[in-house]
Design goal:
With 273 residues, this protein is of the alpha+beta class. The protein has two domains: 132 residues, no CATH class; 126 residues, OmpA-like domain (60s Ribosomal Protein L30, Chain: A), CATH 3.30.1330. It is built from eight helices and ten strands. The N terminus is likely disordered.
Length: 273
């Protein structure tokens, strides 16, 4: 993994990202990547970064990675994040490998280079995805510490729009929350509170926020947190973090209201712990 900070390199890479993307070089003679053990580094299942093809990584819109979900076709994956970097072959290929550059948010335009892998099932529908470097999913789905042991996660990252189904990166974020809680507390107890923005009826927003809080609790219970030690609450549009003008849900207004669409997790030692 490399970290770069050259502003000139950043601008050049961003300009290149606006083009159709890196062209996939594939030929009939290219073997399926399922059998290409010779290009893999031992142990982690990711291809080695080979100087013969490595182009420094592709700058990709993080929102497109967040839209990757189970069941998508190869064409849908390609539309979101482009062609894989390797010559993966044509038929029966069940694994695509990417190299992305993601900005860290630090001053100066620093970014890290990340390896990302998607796997397809027998029907060539997306089955799973994974990262090689732990820092990379943490950039896409950050967990903010609000105060003491209260953690804040973006509802837009955890869930698809108007849905209570967890995204791939949302699940990864919750796995990090569970690992942290189990390392800091002998028997962690949690209060999970869901929030929405102000658009939609109060009844609908209340139900959605409660359903999302319950979904988070159910997933954390699969990661070692006792479900009996987790309480949930849906607060709808209550307790807004930001106030934004506008009575119509335009793109600019909904973007402004993003911090209000959140899930807060307060962690403490369980009473029974």
């Amino acid at each position: 993994m490399k970290v770069w900070s050259s502003d000139a390199m950043r601008k050049a890479a961003l300009g290149a990202a606006g083009i159709a993307g890196v062209v996939l070089v594939a030929g009939c003679a290219a073997p399926p990547n399922n059998d290409r053990a010779e290009i893999r580094e031992a142990g982690d299942g990711f291809p080695a970064l080979d100087d013969n093809w490595y182009d420094g990584g592709r700058f990709v819109d993080p929102r497109n990675i967040l839209r990757i979900k189970e069941g998508q076709s190869k064409d849908q994956v390609r539309q979101l994040i482009g062609n894989p970097h390797y010559s993966e072959g044509f038929f029966g290929v069940r694994e695509w490998n990417y190299v992305f550059n993601l900005y860290t948010g630090e001053e100066g335009g620093d970014y890290i280079t990340c390896q990302y892998q998607v796997e397809f099932d027998d029907e060539m529908a997306l089955e799973s995805s994974r990262w090689r470097e732990a820092q990379c999913p943490a950039l896409l789905a950050p967990v903010e510490r609000k105060e003491d042991q209260t953690l804040v996660l973006s509802g837009d990252v955890l869930f698809d729009f108007d849905s209570d189904r967890l995204t791939l990166e949302g699940r990864r974020a919750l796995e990090r929350v569970a690992q942290s809680a189990l390392s800091e507390f002998e028997a962690p107890g949690m209060l999970i509170t869901g929030y929405t923005d102000r658009f939609g009826s109060a009844t609908y927003n209340q139900a959605l926020s409660q359903s999302r809080a319950d979904t988070v609790a159910d997933y954390l219970s699969t990661q070692g947190i006792s479900r009996g030690d987790i309480r949930t609450a849906g607060r709808g549009e209550a307790d807004p973090v930001v106030t934004c003008p506008g009575s119509v849900a335009t793109q600019s207004v909904t973007e402004c209201l993003r911090p209000n669409r959140r899930v807060e997790i307060t962690i403490s030692e369980s009473v029974d712990g």
